[in-house]
Amino acid sequence: MSDYTGFSEDEELQEGNFLMLHFDAPGAESITVQLIGGNSNVIWLPVHGIMIARIESTEQSIMAVADYGPAGAVIKEIPLDGLTLESE
């Protein structure tokens, strides 16, 4: 992808490997996501459960937390080592 300005006006950050994922946790009060590793920003649209991240390396991972209030939370780490990136 190129010329995507949602992350930054910095031209170097407007190109690269972007990953979009949809998260759904029925019954959860909230879901939060975080990109682990690297310096990339994440766009998180909680109303839609959509995350868009600029992936710099397959050594990164995504941490998702579904908060069920008094019932506790479910935490999942999603490794990205299975991705094939156009450029790294």
Describe the structure.
The chain is mainly beta. The protein has one domain: Immunoglobulin-like (Sandwich), CATH 2.60.40. The chain has strands at residues 17-22, 30-36, 42-45, 50-55, 61-67, 73-79. The chain has a three-stranded antiparallel beta sheet, with no helix packed on it. A hairpin with a 5-residue loop joins β5 (61-67) and β6. The chain starts with 16 loop residues before the first strand and ends in a 9-residue tail after the last strand.
Topology (SSEs and partners):
Layout: E1 17-22, E2 30-36, E3 42-45, E4 50-55, E5 61-67, E6 73-79
Antiparallel strand pairs: 1-4, 2-5, 3-4, 5-6
User: CATH class, anyone?
Assistant: Mainly Beta
CATH fold-level assignment? Immunoglobulin-like
* Shape, per Cα inertia axes: elongated
Discrete helix count:
0
Spans of at least 5 consecutive residues whose pLDDT stays below 50 are none
User: Which percent range describes the beta-strand content?
Assistant: 35-45%
The profile of the biggest β sheet is:
3 strands, antiparallel
Structural class by secondary-structure content:
mainly beta
Which CATH architecture?
A: Sandwich
Q: Could you give a quick summary of the protein structure above?
A:
The chain has 88 residues and is an all-beta fold.
Short descriptors:
3-stranded antiparallel β-sheet, mainly beta, 0% helix, 88 residues, Immunoglobulin-like, elongated, 6 strands
